[in-house]
Amino acid sequence: MTELSRFLFGRRARRRWIHLILGGALAMPYVFVGQLVVGPATDSRYVFNDLPLQLLSFAVGLPLATITAVLFPLTRPLEAGAVRSLCGVEAGLLAYGPARTRTAKGRAAAWFTLHLGFGGIIAGMSLAVPPFAGFLAALPLLVWLGGEELVELPDALDHTWVLVLAPVAGVATMVALAGCAAVCGSLLARWAPALLGPTPEDRLAAVEARAADLAVRNRLARELHDSVGHALSAVTLQASAARRVLDSDPEFVREALAAIEDTTRRTVGELDAVLGVLRDGDTPGTAPAPTLAADLDGLLRRTRAGGLRVTATLAADAEALPPVLSREAYRIVQEGLSNALKHAGEGVTVRLWIEVADGHLRITVENPVATARECRPGGGHGLRGIADRTRLLGGTTEAGAARGTWRLHVRLPMTGPEDLPVKGPA
């Protein structure tokens, strides 16, 4: 009995009843249009006072509701929002984007028609049944107050039994109304995921959007790792080297502090530019992305200020490189030098080559590695970031240790002129 009472009059049942009444309200304009058709067709002046003609007008207007749902793609998200709030359907089972495909429009139109159809019936019953049920419940009181002159009862019926059963009939009528509303609401809630849920095309679009979002996030993660990670490694080694020679080599200390200042200033600008993309409603930072042409010399100077000897050979005109290639190549060189700073050990020389050959920009970084640090299977996040950047540009990456030397070799296809002027050591 408790379950039945909850099914008929519980909170969910009441909210679904409201949803049906809203459907009836939405159906009224279509019913009025139907009356404009039915009236002249049946030569009736008072369609509103004739129940069969009203039902016929309702039947004529429903196809117009179907057409409306097909023509207006926003019908689906509006209906999905109402179903989620009033019918108790889980949000993940519904689609909230406009219906774009033929399948999605057909499902949305079917749902809209069912909602208005069931809603029109239940709304009409909700207007007519309660007054009638109230009259039946109050019939004995009316007869007692005013006599049979106030309420005329049919002579063919036993008036005593009519007065006894009338209140029971009134209550039963209200229960029947609640039952009809509960059943219709349950049916709509069961059909909603199939008709308002995402179609295969919607799921594919959602997967593509998520993949694009993940690609952006991965790119931001690579930018943060390459810029901030390199800066922290460089600043740590620069500060360590300056501390060791603080009393014996003041000039080197001044250079290291200047490099630390330059590194942190540039990194803060890059960090602001990247984080600006992540802040909702914020404007991305305006710090330009570093390139080989703009900052290779500065990168080498800051790396050397950390006490690492770097021999660099630039056999390509950095100014002539395409901007995208120059930017990604800078990050690759930065990460290669960062790895050398962290893993090469002290008192070693790092060799860097940047050249153009066979239509490719070739970047090679070599440095000795300490015996205890040679085995790093798969490398760290930096090597994965280099591999990702190279793959997006259609290039190849080779990295590994052999005979005590760590070697990183990257080949990036050129998108600009292949015959670039050669420069000497940097």
Features:
2 domains; nucleotide-binding; kinase; Heat Shock Protein 90; ATP binding; 66% helix; 426 residues; transferase; Sensor_HK_TwoCompSys
| Low-confidence segments | 281-286, 371-379, 416-426
**Structural class category:** alpha+beta
Over all CA atoms, what is the radius of gyration?
A: 39 Å
Number of beta strands = 5
Distance between the termini: 89 Å
- Which percent band covers the strand fraction? 5-15%
Integer average pLDDT: 81
Keywords: ATP-binding, Kinase, Membrane, Nucleotide-binding, Phosphoprotein, Transferase, Transmembrane, Transmembrane helix, Two-component regulatory system
Catalytic activity: ATP + protein L-histidine = ADP + protein N-phospho-L-histidine
EC number: 2.7.13.3
Enzyme class: transferase
SSE blueprint:
Elements: H1 2-9, H2 11-42, H3 51-71, H4 75-86, H5 102-150, H6 159-196, H7 200-244, H8 250-278, H9 292-304, E1 309-315, H10 323-343, E2 349-357, E3 360-368, H11 381-392, E4 396-402, E5 405-413
Parallel strand pairs: 1-2
Antiparallel strand pairs: 2-3, 3-5, 4-5
Helix pairs in contact: 1-2, 2-3, 2-4, 2-5, 2-6, 3-5, 5-6, 7-8, 7-10, 9-10, 10-11
Descriptive notes:
The chain has helices at residues 2-9, 11-42, 51-71, 75-86, 102-150, 159-196, 200-244, 250-278, 292-304, 323-343, 381-392, and strands spanning 309-315, 349-357, 360-368, 396-402, 405-413. It has 426 residues and is of the alpha+beta class. The chain contains eleven helices and five strands. Helix 2 packs across helix 4 (75-86) and helix 7 (200-244) packs antiparallel against helix 8. Helix content is 66%, strand content 10%. The protein folds into two domains: 2-198, no CATH class; 206-413, 2-Layer Sandwich (Heat Shock Protein 90), CATH 3.30.565. It has a five-stranded mixed β-sheet with strand order 1-2-3-5-4, covered by helices on one side.
